[in-house]
Amino acid sequence: MVAPGSGVELAELTADRVGVLVESDGRAVTGSWSETTRNASGTVSGRVSGDRIQVVARSDSFSASLTLVTRGIRQLVTIQPQGTEISEVSITLAKGQPTTTGAAR
Questions:
Q1: pLDDT single digits (tens) 65-76
Q2: Would 34 disulfide with which of 41, 69, 73, 81, CB 3.0-4.6 Å?
Q3: Does residue 6 have a pLDDT over 70?
Q4: Is residue 3 assigned to a domain?
Q5: Overall average pLDDT of the 31-42 stretch
Q6: Assigned domain for 1 exists
Q7: Residue 96, domain member (yes or no)
Q8: 67, 74 in Cβ contact below 8 A?
C-alpha cells in the first residue's frame, strides 16, 4: 500500500518503458511516462484510495486506465486501453510464488 504523503515514486516499469508517478497530496497521483522504443510519452493522473491506485495514462495517440491493487502478498494489475483491439489486460503477481498469471481480452 502507498502511504499518504510519502512522496512515493514508481519508476522503470520495464526495460524500455520509464514511468514516474509522484504522490503529491496524499491522494492525487500525477506524473509522466515515456516508451523509448516507440518514441512515445505522455501524462499520468489519478487517485490513491486504500490498497488501490487508479490512473489514466494519456498521450497524443494513446489512452488507457490502469488499476493496481495490493492485497497481502499479491498485486493485481488491470490495464484497459482505449481504441485498440485489446479491451483489457489483467496480471496477478504474487511474492514468493513461482508463477505469474495474466490474461488479455
A1: 999 999 988 999
A2: 41
A3: no
A4: no
A5: 81
A6: no
A7: yes
A8: no
